[in-house]
């Protein structure tokens, strides 16, 4: 987000009528100066909290889609922005849309107005809006952008859900095991010690594990918390992120899922920018700005440098392991036939479909597998707890 802050003000206009509203300004003095320039006598200026979560992709998709609908209905851009500002539920969005409407009314290009908010609108938004302004098809570009962002958001959520599921199951199994070892097994151990009977090897091993958990539980919790903290801090490091992404691509099932999601994002944006009339390098630059992974960003930056040196697009993919042989073959065909936008759209559609299928397959494969693992863990603990009871029962019946 930029340095401007949100201020809520109330005051009197030229006629002495009470009025109020929201304004963006770097500080209180600037906010007051802006009000004086509008011939408003401020009575109260209070800073408002700006929540970063309200700048998320969902709000931006709603804004672009609603704007596209208004433009297609024949409403002028300034009026459309003003209408969206009036009906928005979030104060910071109302203030932002009001400012955009004012700037567009004053003759500032819409893309330049968005560019002043780099923390809200990514370069892809600005590039497509500028293309829409140049071609006179701003409504189509907004609609295309909204559809692309919605599809990528849905795909991203599905991939994250498929990758998160095994982790949740593993944590649940670990908590169940620790809970039984910490609270249930010690009670059985006390009973068996009272009988002073020999224990089976399985029960003896489980009891030793329970004793270790009971005696060292606080140290294990401290070590676990430290490891989690270190990992979370390391994940902010670009080198760590590069290695993490490289490792994910090498994993079976998971690697293909991650690769498919990234390639779907790359080809969807490239196809959209090609259809909008942007040059290939500019489209790749827009893709780079939308990628958070240093691994993929560096890969595309290498591709861009090679293309700038005159190397064909398909040739630049040969040394990049993130791209598949199918990518190279189809892009080679596209460059030979001059149908780059069509071929990129097909690649995007194919990778999106494959990624959806892999996410469903991963979930359906891991669900029974993780259930079996949890069953084995809990079953082993239960058998170890009750096996001495069965043996003592057999011994007592034999003695009788």
Automatic annotation (TrEMBL):
InterPro entries reported for this sequence:
GspF/PilC (IPR003004), T2SS_GspF/T4SS_PilC_CS (IPR001992), T2SS_GspF_dom (IPR018076), T2SS_GspF_sf (IPR042094)
The record's annotation in PROSITE patterns points to: T2SP_F
Task: Give TM regions.
Answer: 165-185, 205-232, 368-387
Listed A to Z, the keywords are:
Cell inner membrane, Cell membrane, Membrane, Transmembrane, Transmembrane helix, Transport
Q: Where in the cell is it found?
A: Cell inner membrane
Q: How does it sit in the membrane?
A: Multi-pass membrane protein
Q: Which Pfam families match?
A: T2SSF
Domain (Type II secretion system protein GspF) ranges: 63-186, 268-388
Keyword Isomerase appears in the UniProt entry: no
Taxonomically, which superkingdom? Bacteria
- PANTHER family this protein is in? GENERAL SECRETION PATHWAY PROTEIN, PROTEIN TRANSPORT PROTEIN HOFC HOMOLOG
What NCBIfam families does its record include?
PRK10573.1
Family recorded in the similarity comment: Belongs to the GSP F family.
Name of this chain's protein: Protein transport protein HofC
Q: Which species is this UniProt entry from?
A: Atlantibacter subterraneus
């Amino acid at each position: 987000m930029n340095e401007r802050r949100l201020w809520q003000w109330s005051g009197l206009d030229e006629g002495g009528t009470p009025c109020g509203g929201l304004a963006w300004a770097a500080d209180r003095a600037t906010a007051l100066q802006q009000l004086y320039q509008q011939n408003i006598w401020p009575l109260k200026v209070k800073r408002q909290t700006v929540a970063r979560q309200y700048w998320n992709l969902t709000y931006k998709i709603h804004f672009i889609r609603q704007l596209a609908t208004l433009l297609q209905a024949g409403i002028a851009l300034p009026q459309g922005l003003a209408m969206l500002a009036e009906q928005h539920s979030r104060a910071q969005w109302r203030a932002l849309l009001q400012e955009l409407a004012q700037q567009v009314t004053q003759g500032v290009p819409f893309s330049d107005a968005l560019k002043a908010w780099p923390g809200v609108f990514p370069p892809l938004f600005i590039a497509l809006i500028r293309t829409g302004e140049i071609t006179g098809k701003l409504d189509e570009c907004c609609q295309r952008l909204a559809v692309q962002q919605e599809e990528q958001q849905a795909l991203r959520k599905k991939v994250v859900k498929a990758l998160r599921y095994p982790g949740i199951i593993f944590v649940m199994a670990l908590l169940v095991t620790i809970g039984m070892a910490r609270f249930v097994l010690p009670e059985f151990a006390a009973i068996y010690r009272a009988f002073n009977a020999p224990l089976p090897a399985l029960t003896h091993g489980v009891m030793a594990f329970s004793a270790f958990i009971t005696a060292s539980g606080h140290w294990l919790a401290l070590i676990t918390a430290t490891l989690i903290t270190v990992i979370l801090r390391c994940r902010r490091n670009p080198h760590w992120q590069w290695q993490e992404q490289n490792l994910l691509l090498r994993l079976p099932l998971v690697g293909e899922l991650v690769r498919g999601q990234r390639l779907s994002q790359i080809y969807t944006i490239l196809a959209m920018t090609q259809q909008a009339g942007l040059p290939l390098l500019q489209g790749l630059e827009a893709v780079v700005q939308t990628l958070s992974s240093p691994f993929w960003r560096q890969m595309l930056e290498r591709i861009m440098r090679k293309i700038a040196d005159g190397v064909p697009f398909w040739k630049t993919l040969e040394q990049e392991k993130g791209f598949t042989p199918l990518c190279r073959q189809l892009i080679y065909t596209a460059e030979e036939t001059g149908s780059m936008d069509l071929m990129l759209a097909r690649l995007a559609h194919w990778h999106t479909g494959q990624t959806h299928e892999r996410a469903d397959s991963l979930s359906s494969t891991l669900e029974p597998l993780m259930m079996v693992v949890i069953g084995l863990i809990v079953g082993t603990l239960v058998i170890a707890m009750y096996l001495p009871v069965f043996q003592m029962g057999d011994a007592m019946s034999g003695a009788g």
